[in-house]
Amino acid sequence: MPKREEVLKRYGIRGSPTTGLIAGTIAFFAGFAAVALFGITVHTVAPLLHLNIIEVGWLVAIPLVTGALLRIPFGALVDNVGGRRIILTQLIIAIIGMIGLILTLHAILTHSIGSSILGYALLMLFGAVAGTGISTFASGIAYVSYWFPQRRQGYALGAYAGFGNAAPGIFTAILPYALAGLGLIGAYTAWAVFLVIMTAVFTIIGYDAYYFQLVKRVGHNEAERLAKELGEELIPSGSAIRSLSESARIWRTWLLVIMYFISFGGFEALTEWLPTYWTNYLSLGIAMAGFMTGVVYSLITALMRVPGGWFSDKWSGERVAIISYIILVIGSIIMMLSHNFALSTVGTIVMAIGMGIANAAVFKLVPKYVPEAVGGATGWVGGLGSAGGLLIPPAMATFVAIYGHVGYALGFMIYTVFGSLSIIFAIILYWHEHKHK
């Protein structure tokens, strides 16, 4: 019996890189689906609660508050205890939030809540709790990273994030039809059931990488030696605080945070904001707005991460990042100039291509630059970077409040500015890489 098989059998090691990738993707796909819910259903709830455009902007952003901020501790904790327990905890919290949302929506629709302020506060509260599912991104990135060697990081993380990010696109596209067929409560209940089922699937097939399984049996030093024999290249620091502090001391981490703020945080923001843009700026129906957001934008963005990861493996994450952010800026300028459906469609697709590839390129660079603290770096980049999803929708709503109808187009200036800044940062990383070869 080969030595590898002997080690696996002797220590009862379960799982493989392939099953790890599948399990992590399933968990992220299920958890991330929450981001699509408020963007569509807010149009049903907002009139009942008499919400203005700023309040709508904050409501669609609220799942991203916890979805972003909780990525920092949860991502770092993977270095300490492995991803399995962390991801399960996040999904269970998301289920609790979904139950709270269902009960709150039922109370609003049946007028059991007499105060619109109370209804709004409860939606914000349970939306934040449900948004914990979105934070599975960071823990999942670290979870998958430990399963794969550096040369396959682009492929693995591109596939993980690409298919996982497809959730908002798919759900945004089908949600209008679910609302028509099942009603608001039925649609939310169906998603909650889906989340429970996917959590059960992850429980069955999701195992931590070799080191985390071995360290429970033989201690750190021996676990590290055996894990490396089995092909695991990344070994965690073993402490969440240490992982966060080590990654925070590396200046490149902070360039990646800003780059991710506009590519992935911006992706989350537009998944929530575009239904409002399409319906209010270009007067599309809710079903068509869902299709344009879910399929034409969100799904394309998500799936572009898959080839984006392959491009990053082949031509380096730095080069791919430079090109992808240039594409993003071009798309944002088109959106700023657009006042009709055709031009907005072109701009949306261009932005989707650039953002999807950029997201893959950034996370190709995370384990490359911070191999000793992947969980911590993932937490910073995924958490603070995702804050774009929290801050951008209210900022775009502010453009509308200040400039009126044209503000829907002018708001895309945010993507032009931060996209240009990201091009500069990607060039700095490219220069740094070649200087130290």
From TrEMBL:
InterPro entries: MFS (IPR011701), MFS_dom (IPR020846), MFS_trans_sf (IPR036259), NO3_transporter (IPR044772). Its main location: membrane. The keyword Transmembrane helix applies. It holds the Pfam family MFS_1. The keyword Transmembrane helix applies. GO terms for cellular component: membrane. Residues 19-434 form the Major facilitator superfamily (MFS) profile domain. This is NarK/NasA family nitrate transporter. It comes from Vulcanisaeta souniana JCM 11219. The gene is narT.
